Amino acid sequence: MDVGGTFTDIVVESTDGISGYKLLTDHAAPEQGIVEGVARLLSKLGKSFADIDLFLHGTTLATNAVLERKGAKIGFLTTAGFRDVLEIGYENRHNPMDLNLTKPVPIATRERRFTLTERIAADGTILKPLDTDELEALVPQIAAGAIESLAIGFLHSYLNPVHERFAQNFFASRLPDLPVSLSSEICPEIREYERFSTVCLNAYVKPVITNYLSRLGRHLAGLGLRCPILIMASSGGLIPVSHAIDAPIQLIESGPAGGAVLASKISAEIGASHVMSFDMGGTTAKICFLEDGQPNVTRLFEVDRTERFMPGSGLPLRAPVVELVEIGAGGGSIARVDAMKRIIVGPESAGSSPGPACYGLGGVAPTITDADLLLGKIDGERFAGGEIQLSRSHSSDAVQEHIATKQGVSNIEAAFGITEIVDETMSNAARAHAAELGRDLSSHTMIAFGGAAPLHAARIAQKLGIKRLVIPTAAGVGSAVGFLHAPVAFDVAVSTPGLLSAFDPSRVSEAEDIAEDRIRSALLEVGVNEEANKRAFMDLRYIGQGHEVEIELPETLNRQELKRAFEKRYKDLFGRLLPNTEIEVVSVRVRVSVDISSRKKQGFKSSSGSAEPEISELFDANSETFQPAKVLERSAIKVGDVAAGPALVREDQTTTVAPRGFDLSILAGGHLMLTAREEK
Amino acid sequence: MELSPLKKQVVWERLIAIVEDQARALMKTAFSPIVRESGDLSAGVFDASGCMLAQARTGTPGHINTMAESVGKFLTFFPIDELSDGDVLATNDPWIGTGHLNDYVVVTPIFANQNLIGFFACTGHMTDVGGIGLSPDGLDIFMEGTRIPPVKIVEQGKLNEAIVQIARQNSRLPDEIEGDIHALIACNAWGDRRLKEMFEEVGLSDLELIGEHIIEHTDKAFQEAIRPHAGTTSTHQMTIDGYDEKLDLVATVSIHIDHVEVKWDGTSSASKFGINVPLGYAAAYSSYAVLCALASDVPNNHGTLQNIRVSAPKDTVVNAVFPQPVSCRHIVGGLLPDVVLGAIDKIIPGKLPAESASALWTLTFKGGGSNPFTTSIVTNGGTGARPHRDGLSATAFPSAVRGTPVEMVETKTPLIFWRRELRIGSSGEGCHRGGLGQEIEIGTCDGNPLTLVAAFDRIENAARGREGGQPGANGALCTSDGLPLAGKGTHTLPPDKTFVFRSPGGGGYGSPERRDPKAKEEDQRFGLI
Fold first, then answer.
1. Residue B291: its chain A contacts at CB < 8 A?
2. Domain encompassing residue B291
3. pLDDT digits (tens, 9 = 90+) for A162-196
4. How many domains does chain B have?
5. B214 vs B50: CA distance, rounded Å
6. Three-class SS of residue B463?
């Protein structure tokens, strides 16, 4: 189950197949909403909580705790002389033109930032020993400050954590109820601001996540749940509750990571080596690239942007996160007209309350969903499985007042303007990200899921020159389906600065040992005993550069081999090698994973509709006119059938738009495929 | 061909996406730490007559707005009919490019169907271009490094090896400079590729229609923004430390019906030392301030820049002429927006911030004895309080570049930071207080003497407050024994001593008596005052 910003998606997989359910997220009491939704779906299926064998959960709770500043009252203990690292930050302004800009307020305010005499040098040696008297003197201060969670971050602790560990042990004996997070454990990497920010965020969400997961566990147990609960981590792996509580920062992109796992699963199934996944829900859209079924995993992320989606305006977070580009464009994103009479869409969203104008719940601003409804893409009767009845006239009024009248265009032209601008924004984000990764988009397959993605995917594919799209079964609740396919996995990164020509391979086994330890204890909890799959990656660059290139480590750690792998990757990305420049190693990352989805492949269970195609009017983006389109029921299309666009394929949680120029068919796995016809 | 208004918006946004991408490619491949860690670069696309259509949003107005002018300047050396497909132009001439020898400007003509249809341009800061290094101590341009006149660095696809060798052999970091020159060339090529993809997709073959649309719309939006203030004029003066004597900066801003004029008459004569500013760089920061103050929502391109006319008498510190020294032009350049904002504040009171620390506090060290190293660490003071908000502590203004992480510096050099904290009590008091400066203490651990090339301002002349707000604290530079050192020049300390830097605080806004007691209480609780 995936608790998102607008919708909570629930998926049950059983011997009868997969069933999906979508309800509006209850922000006040998330666990209550989940339990109710699950109970409703189970009773539909004639099952009970006791019948569940494994409970998989993704949540935005950690993200929301940061966004809404509802985390714990934290203290931060750091090296004397460096009390303000969190406040000094990068020293930049993310928008150079804005004289009134604000920066995120540090989550550890100054009176709760403590310092301690100690100093480790850049080579790991001790420059100044830790002052234990000062440590002793901190105890009453921390107690008096009513600190609920403590983060510790010392300079260069990623190389030598001895002082951080000493302080941790000290507090464990003196203040045993105080949760403590260490920067050398949560994020053992160079660059003090990013490491300190990460450990503080971890301490900040720790009590919230601990309470929530314990409450949810108790609640579910009370209802008869007997199985283990696994939590979706941002890296695309499942982790046990105990690990989520130790390092809750791993949950920050929990839901979206599920989407990447789904894309990974589908790309293996259909044999696509270059994939762009496109996930668009009620609040945001996410784009992720996969190569040979593997999503890119990054280690630097940003949360709590003061200006949403403005890079650089948030708090940095260094943790393994599936590399996603997030765009403030979902079904609920609001459209407006700016001073230059241009249409601007998002990032403000109407959310689940009041929602788009067409929900009839009091929203008056035009949203993407309103535009889609007016353009004939959505069936107003069956939105979110019929949970919400959509009103065309509300949409029309909103678009008329806020866009059409201001621009002096017709209602339909305005609606098309909204979708065209948002599709362009998403395409630009995809293009920029592909370029950063050195990808040629035209060779990619797009895998589109999430409630709003199948409505927009084909248009975006046209803009990007993508010829093949796959809309997976249960696309409307895709991220939750992804949880079902996720492995249990752990990522461990270590800083290993030095020349490649002098690289010591034992640093790799060091990281491997930590990762294997963690996964063994995790598997024990789940009751699985299987051999772990291990992959190692290395970040390298030319000496003097500041940005690294990641390569996967070959089986044998031969320096010549590493150099070749780096040069190949560098050339793919930047075109030209620098033969006279030395290569340096920055860090090593190890990922161990165990596939627990030993289940058979199941089809999606859905209500079946009529096989006779109806005809509906659908707006065509190329000719900018309405054209008759076939309306097909997804469950009624058989493997081997081919239909030509323009067509609409309806199912409970979403609708797929196949414009003119696309052929659609059903793959053996039940996935819907759209192929662009070659133009003559 | 005709473009629908919607299509025009789409193509415009695509152009912006392309130049953003161009800038990202440069940051990823650059060697110069100040480009890759701090973002000291610019990238943009121009029409066939050299007018800038779109720029990447990077941290350096000084680069962007000088680059906007430099494409036109290149065309006086290389008329369009002398350019062929595969040519790439370059220079580091301060009067054509960004105002000092460290920055290379690279311009690549765009050809489509054998016609020149526009240009991509970019700039980037090289760590070392020879001479005495990045220092204000030079007495003429020849001491400051090697000047490459406007040249075809690539001619019809063939690299001009001689130019690369000249750059290499006159630099203390030859591999770095060669790598950076290639990064600049490649970043324009990257833009060209993306532009052609876009042409194919939307069915365009040149930039004429979209260029006209962009410039016309921007021009109109800018004029609408300034019109309410047309017919006003105002002068403002600010005194700064200078090198060996104080300097007066005087700006007169006149808002006309269709353009804004900034005149620097009354400003002090050029200095003997390398803190002078070529007019192009002064114009860049003047335009930046005008845009921020009057039309911050209007995009920065030829449509806006053509309407901001900046002039200064020759041989003043803001219009240095060849061969005057200009290496540290960013010190005075960075202080110019405060003067322009001060003038505009008199026209639209109640909207603009108090004065900021403004000039970067870039700490340039040399040392290492027989194992020599040189490094520059970017740090900042506080920004001025805003009419409705406090200033920002330890934050760059008017440039928006990033600082350098302590752990990165210590890993690459024998330097040790003993302290880097907010400087308590440095903010200018007011109803809203200025941002705080920093207190930084640095020594070494290798037993060798340590040399600092100082180029700091606001040590004698603080950032002033507005509307009754108090000035921020003056900057200070001293040794660990408390011995004060001059803000500009070269200082060497024995290995057992350290340098202490106290960067200036921002000015306050409004009378301190009007400060919200809650805000005052918070400052006390946080130990900031």
1. 97
2. 228-348
3. 999 999 999 999 999 999 999 999 988 888 999 99
4. 3
5. 14
6. coil
